[in-house]
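User: I've been trying to design a sequence by hand for this structure and keep getting stuck. Would you show me what you'd pick, starting by listing the structure so we're on the same page?

Assistant: Good idea, let's start from the same input. This is the structure you sent:
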């Protein structure tokens, strides 16, 4: 019987961040192998150390299988298939396993070596997907500072993917459980973000939000569109973007049959409560923090008594690409990386979302 499990290419993330240990913990879930064939692209040295830490801290006992091509993978629970790019020498991974307090954080932080390696892992998984050697890509966290130190001047994964796939119209989507947001702008100053609220861009984001929901299994998406200004500008008293840019985009989308229940921008101080209440399946937001803050308030849970993260959940998805890309919705965790305390939930969520997207795209191709 043919093995129809999709192959998911997973970039390891910054070698001095939490990506290696999160990858190990996520691939310790046997059920993940029932759903897909996970393939890590990264460095053997980093993954070997993460395996040692995971074994010492959590008793996880997994092995590496080094491959050159996705087709060589075993894709069996107990074995992590890895394409080793050989960018991080073993002597660059600090060994703290023998510390009497247990494994300690690396304390390296953003550096040129980590940035170069993380960047190359991402470029490699993009190429695998563009060559149809993997069905979807998932990315662990990288450091924007580190990749820029290495001479790669991008503001994040989204822009790297857009550049290397030749994509002009794209957007970032964040999601956790029933709360989803798509951003009109992301990594720019707040002043510039206001200038980017234009009818055509807002309409593009409404289109991408609608399509993303369908790809995630929502047959008839309900879309909320956040205003930019307090009280949506109060009829122009606090700004005219809602009148001159956002409402025309909504009107155009409604004319196409897209379901925007309120038929107008929703004040940003109530739109997320409405989304959680089921009014919308997704919200188009106007700038980075307007979308990130509510998602992380919901998905990130810190235990203040025990001083650790109970959950770091949620996904980051790039819409508009010719390939599937989903990412963890957290950073590299440099201050804690290397001690075995990283939480893998966001990576597992990202893999599952990538599988939904890959399945939808396959069905669309078959339908055409």
């Amino acid at each position: 019987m043919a093995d129809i499990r999709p192959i998911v290419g997973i970039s390891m993330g910054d070698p001095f961040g939490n990506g290696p240990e999160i990858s190990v913990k996520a691939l310790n879930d046997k059920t993940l192998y029932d759903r897909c064939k996970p393939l890590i692209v990264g460095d053997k040295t980093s993954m070997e150390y993460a395996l040692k830490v995971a074994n010492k801290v959590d008793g996880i006992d997994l092995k590496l299988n080094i491959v050159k091509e996705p087709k060589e993978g075993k894709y069996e629970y107990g074995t992590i298939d890895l394409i080793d790019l050989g960018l991080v020498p073993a002597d660059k991974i600090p060994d703290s396993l023998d510390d009497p307090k247990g494994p300690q954080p690396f304390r390296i932080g953003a550096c040129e070596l980590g940035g170069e390696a993380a960047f190359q892992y991402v470029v490699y998984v993009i190429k695998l997907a563009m060559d149809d050697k993997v069905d979807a890509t998932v990315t662990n966290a990288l450091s924007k500072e580190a990749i820029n130190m290495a001479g790669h001047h991008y503001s994040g994964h989204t822009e790297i993917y857009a550049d290397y796939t030749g994509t002009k119209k794209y957007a970032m989507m964040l999601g956790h459980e029933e709360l989803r947001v798509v951003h009109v702008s992301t990594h720019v100053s707040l002043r510039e973000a206001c200038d980017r609220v234009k009818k055509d861009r807002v309409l593009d984001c409404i289109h991408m939000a609608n399509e993303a929901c369908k790809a995630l299994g929502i047959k008839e998406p309900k879309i909320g569109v956040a205003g930019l200004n307090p009280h949506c500008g109060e009829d122009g008293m606090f700004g005219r973007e809602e009148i001159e840019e956002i409402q025309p985009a909504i009107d155009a989308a409604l004319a196409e049959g897209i379901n925007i229940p309120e038929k107008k921008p929703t004040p940003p101080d109530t739109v997320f409560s409405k989304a959680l209440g089921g009014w919308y399946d997704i919200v188009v937001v106007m700038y980075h923090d307007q979308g990130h803050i509510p998602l992380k308030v919901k998905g990130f849970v810190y235990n203040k008594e025990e001083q650790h993260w109970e959950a770091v959940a949620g996904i980051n998805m790039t819409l508009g690409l010719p390939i599937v890309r989903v990412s963890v919705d957290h950073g590299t965790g440099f201050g804690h990386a290397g001690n075995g305390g990283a939480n893998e939930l966001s990576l597992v969520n990202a893999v599952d979302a990538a599988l939904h997207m890959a399945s939808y795209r396959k069905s669309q191709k078959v339908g055409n």
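That's my pick for every position. To get oriented when you compare it with your attempt: The chain has a mean pLDDT of 93. The chain has twelve helices and 13 strands.
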